[in-house]
Specification:
Helix content: 40-55%
CATH class of the largest domain: Mainly Alpha
CATH superfamily of the largest domain: Intergrase catalytic core
Oligomer: single chain
Number of strands: 5
Radius of gyration: 28 Å
Largest sheet: 3 strands, antiparallel
Number of helices: 14
Structural class: mainly alpha
CATH architecture of the largest domain: Orthogonal Bundle
Order of helices and strands: EEHHHHHHHHEEEHHHHHH
Shape: elongated
Number of domains: 3
Length: 361
């Protein structure tokens, strides 16, 4: 009986190719396809594929890493970030992924080969930044798992060393906040010193990024309100990508007539902070803010707050004074009211007691 005819090459270069389907890619949920080539025969390419499947299964059972190629963590992270940039909103990409990777993760893991990073190394990273909020550390874990999953899917390593890391949420970072008396002192001192950006932060509760992106044309002094339409975040300069966090972040915020009259002495054209067509960088503003805040804190004996803590004050005091939580949420630009209630509003029991006219016993 004659031997079966040899299958002709299925590639234009004269080689045979066999494709196998692996697990789904965790980045886009698409099946991962891997090809094997042979210049001898189709059966030889199929033999390579079967050997690969057998080897991978053996390593899976043994629980160790199978390295097909070598790469540093940063090389793979950049490829993963490139995909993320095209799959999420630009603001989300910069604030949730890019900035946190560049500032925290890259300095720790960047030059190391992915095959030399173990779960103990990942745990050391989180131990180093245990003082940060759980939400921040969860974002770190999201990035690390994403990069290592990408490495596993593309045969740079077999196991994800971040897979079993658990974020401890018991550590609570206390936020400082002004009481009403301290806020009044802060407002008065800021106006006396000409720190109009401080006045805007405490009276409107806008984010630092929104303050830096605020244009003079969006400060409506005659009608006493400001319009939030864009933001400037770390690693972004003046460009077409100046967008804000979410649709609910686009909002109009009222200001008092006294503040509107005060701002008339400082509002000119361009960006509010610089009165030019060039915005101030987040890094530059952070340094400038800290220096002036320290001065006020020392002179007037009030706590030294960050821009976010001024925003926290804005979200807390009105509720304590009986303001509706839905109104506060809208003014702050939160995507849901749950964020307002969980993050910014405190002493709700006392507010209820006051609203219901229940006297303390």
């Amino acid at each position: 009986m004659p031997r079966p005819a040899k299958r002709p090459p299925n590639r234009t270069d004269g080689r045979w190719e066999v494709k196998i389907t692996l697990e789904k890619n965790t980045i886009d949920s698409k099946p991962i396809r891997k090809s094997f080539y042979s210049s001898i025969s189709y059966d030889d390419a199929k033999r390579q594929a079967n050997e690969y499947i057998t080897t991978m299964e053996a390593h899976r059972l043994l629980g160790d890493a199978l390295v097909q190629r070598e790469a540093t963590f940063d090389e793979l992270a950049q490829l993963w970030l490139d995909h993320k940039e095209s799959s999420v909103k630009y603001y989300t990409f910069v604030t949730t992924y890019k900035t946190k990777y560049d500032k925290y993760i890259k300095p720790f893991f960047g030059t190391r080969k992915v095959t030399d990073i173990y779960s103990s190394d990942v745990q050391k990273f989180f131990d180093k930044y245990k003082y940060l909020s759980s939400s921040m550390r969860k974002k770190f874990l999201l990035i690390l798992k994403g990069v290592f999953d990408f490495a596993v899917d593309n045969d740079f390593c077999y196991k994800n060393p971040a897979k079993k890391i658990v974020i401890n949420e018991k550590l609570i970072i206390k936020k400082n906040v002004y009481n009403q008396s301290e806020k009044d002192i802060f407002m008065r001192a800021s106006k006396e010193k000409g720190y109009y950006d401080f006045v805007l932060l405490i009276e409107t509760g806008i984010r630092r990024s929104e303050l830096l992106g605020l244009l003079c044309i969006n400060v409506h002094l005659d009608e006493a309100f400001i319009s939030i339409t864009q933001a400037i975040t770390p690693n972004i300069r003046y460009s077409k990508e100046l967008s804000i966090k979410s649709n609910t972040s686009y909002r109009n915020i009222p200001i008092s007539t006294d503040t509107a009259d005060y701002l008339k002495h400082f509002i000119s054209s361009g960006y509010v902070i610089t009165n030019t067509n060039t915005p101030m960088s987040p890094e530059g503003y952070a340094h400038n803010f800290k220096k002036r805040m320290r001065e006020l804190s020392s002179k007037y004996a009030i706590p030294e707050l960050t821009p976010h803590e001024l925003r926290y004050t804005f979200g807390t005091l009105p509720r304590e004074n009986g303001a509706d939580i839905y109104t506060i949420s809208k003014a702050m630009g939160h995507s849901t009211i749950e964020i307002t209630a969980k993050t910014y509003v405190k002493n709700d029991l006392e507010v209820l007691r006051k609203d219901m006219k229940i006297d303390n016993v």
